[in-house]
């Protein structure tokens, strides 16, 4: 017999202790043990996303990342090993883990009951149209004034910066599969926005961003805090650099040189030809006839620098006040 979790009666009778799970680097969801050693290479979210949870309970992250649980369990059934003995889990880094897990599940059910996860497509449509209008306004201003009027040129730059920054937040929601019921439709629209409007790769962004949400603020797990040796954030890494005498820069001044260095690192170097070519063709048609090729390149870098400062300043707010540490196998909600 197979139940809703995909477990047969024989598999449910096999029990493992947490020591065995950790030793074999298996993954646990809803007290069921899965051997992901081979499957991780085929995982749609990337191998690293599954291996970062090796030997741990990934229940909360697992349930939040997957929208079609029936389909997911179908794929996981062949790698199901058995059940874990919950009482064998002893983590010195965390207290009241079971209570926290229950609280998180109750909070999630309450949010679903209040329809907080139900998006309104009309809002996202209006947001998208706003970006298109600002983009066209910038092109019109550049076409009429070029470099001749610096005030008009600055207004055009401001419009383009707003488009780039706001497009980043807009594609974020589609990348999280939060707008439409169809995952394919969400990813299609995300590609239009991040590829056609921003000139970035959707696959690259999703690959990095999913890792961030799976292990937020975890050293060597969260790409959003992987800044060394240029910048050191949190309390743990600076101490490590100090003890190992690895300091190569005046980190006491990083809040100043951040503005001149990090924005340039965000200029996209990952290319998916079909989508990003839309972005390049669009900019060529909008600005090269008026500004010339070099003028358009200057405009591109100017907009990208301002947009990158805005983007990093906003996103790092969710990291800097939080505890940044190594993976201590804490509950996903607690991290």
From TrEMBL:
One Pfam annotation reads Cyt-b5
For the biological process aspect of GO, one term held by this record is: lipid metabolic process
Topology relative to the membrane: Multi-pass membrane protein
Specify the Cytochrome b5 heme-binding domain's residue ranges: 11-85
* Domain of life where this protein originates: Eukaryota
Per UniProt, subcellular location reads as: Membrane
Principal place of residence: membrane
The UniProt transmembrane annotation reads 122-142, 148-167, 187-205, 256-276, 283-303
A GO cellular component annotated for this chain's UniProt record is: membrane
Q: What are the protein's UniProt keywords?
A: Lipid metabolism, Membrane, Oxidoreductase, Transmembrane, Transmembrane helix
Q: Which InterPro entries match?
A: Cyt_B5-like_heme/steroid-bd, Cyt_B5-like_heme/steroid_sf, FA_desaturase_dom, Fatty_acid_desaturase
**Could you tell me one molecular function GO term of this UniProt entry?**
oxidoreductase activity, acting on paired donors, with oxidation of a pair of donors resulting in the reduction of molecular oxygen to two molecules of water
PANTHER family from the UniProt entry: DELTA(5) FATTY ACID DESATURASE FAT-4, FATTY ACID DESATURASE 2
Task: Give the protein family.
Answer: Belongs to the fatty acid desaturase type 1 family.
Protein name per Swiss-Prot or TrEMBL: Fatty acid desaturase 2-like
Q: Which organism is it from?
A: Brachionus plicatilis (Marine rotifer)
């Amino acid at each position: 017999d197979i139940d809703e979790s995909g477990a047969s009666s024989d598999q449910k009778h096999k029990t493992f202790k947490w020591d065995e799970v950790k030793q074999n680097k298996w993954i646990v969801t809803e007290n069921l043990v899965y051997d992901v050693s081979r499957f991780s290479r085929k995982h749609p979210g990337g191998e690293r996303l599954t291996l970062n949870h090796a030997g741990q309970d990934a229940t909360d992250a697992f349930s939040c990342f997957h929208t079609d649980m029936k389909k997911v369990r179908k794929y996981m059934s062949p790698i199901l090993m058995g059940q874990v003995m919950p009482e064998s889990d002893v983590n010195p880094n965390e207290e009241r883990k079971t209570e926290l897990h229950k609280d998180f599940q109750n909070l999630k059910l309450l949010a679903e009951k209040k329809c907080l996860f139900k998006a309104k497509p009309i809002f996202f449509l209006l947001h998208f149209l706003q970006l298109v209008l600002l983009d066209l306004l910038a092109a019109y201003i550049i076409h009429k004034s070029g470099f001749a009027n610096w005030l008009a040129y600055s207004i055009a730059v401001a419009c383009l910066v707003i488009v780039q920054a706001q497009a980043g937040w807009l594609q974020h929601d589609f990348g999280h599969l939060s707008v439409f019921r169809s995952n394919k439709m969400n990813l299609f629209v995300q590609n239009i926005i991040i590829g056609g409007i921003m000139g970035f790769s959707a696959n690259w962004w999703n690959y990095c961003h999913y890792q961030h949400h799976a292990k937020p603020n975890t050293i060597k797990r969260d790409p959003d805090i992987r800044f060394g040796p240029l910048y050191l954030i949190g309390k743990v890494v600076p101490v490590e650099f100090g003890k190992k005498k690895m300091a190569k820069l005046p980190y006491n001044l990083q809040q100043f040189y951040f503005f001149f260095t990090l924005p340039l690192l965000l200029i996209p170097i990952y290319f998916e030809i079909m989508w990003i070519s839309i972005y390049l063709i669009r900019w060529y048609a909008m600005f090269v006839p008026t500004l010339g090729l070099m003028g358009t390149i200057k405009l591109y870098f100017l907009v990208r620098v301002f947009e990158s400062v805005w983007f990093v300043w906003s996103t790092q707010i969710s990291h800097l006040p939080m505890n940044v540490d190594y993976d201590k196998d804490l509950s996903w909600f607690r991290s």
